[in-house]
Amino acid sequence: MRLNIAVVSGGDSGEFEISIQSGQVVKKFLDPNQYKVYPIIIKGQEWIYECPNNNVYSVNKNDFSVMMGEVKINFDCVFIAIHGTPGEDGRLQGYFDMLGIPYTSCNQITSSITFNKYFCKIVVSNFGVKTAQSIFLPKSTKTTSNEILNQLSLPLFIKPNSGGSSVGMSKITVAEDLDQAIDNAFKEDDEVLIEEFIGGREITCGVLKHKGEIIKFPILEIVSKKEFFDFEAKYNPALADEIVPAQIPKDVFINCQETSAKLYEALNCKGLVRFDYIYNDTGMYFLEVNTVPGMTEASLVPKMAVSYGMNLTEMFGILVEEAMQ
To answer: The pTM is what?
Structure first.
């Protein structure tokens, strides 16, 4: 008998459209012989299933089910494809935990900690991994540009503390641009992270676990043709080169894979997770972790999987299989 899989996408962040695309790719590649896939779109209080004949059915949030006429659909597993809130920050994870429905991502605690960039940096640095100097700025805190620049050196990255795809993120090189960059970040979040810029090469590693074995995908290097790897560059192939396997020194390649595997275990990750870094002559610096990485045709992890020798049907099947354990 085929399992009923809810592929949840959408969400309440600036990554809504990318999440919808990720959900479509997951539905496309999940093995139809094993799974009956139901795309569920979440936006605010509206949770819907739009079936192939374009009929729309509301999701019953009391038990996460769908009534189609007289037929009630219950789900054996949820494939979470929401980037940002509520799918990557632990909210949906806590909800599904209470209902006893397995899901494909990290648990509630790991998701909430890793989604908060500032807290995640503190935890990661405690594991001996280098991170950039930074300042955490809640919206309620009154801090002047001069106070920030007395602690950090230009250039700076200003980013929403919780978010992805570089939405609301800016790189500044002059002090006059700092206030506007902070305002832009606060449009996306009530907390802002300000980090010193670290020059170097940007690399990333995807990790998942299957049957107790950590699978480390080949390292991918990102060479942005813009000032940095922003939202536009991430989803426009003409604006960035994504090289996999990365043409970097072997020791850096191995260190990136081993560090990613170490963090995967130390942070108690589940499912498929992507770790981002900058490396230069002084070492490798952790940037962030993505516990629900993009799954679109242009996303990084699918490219790493193909380089590893794993097609998307196999990868998505592993994620469901592991969640069902």
So the answer is: 0.90
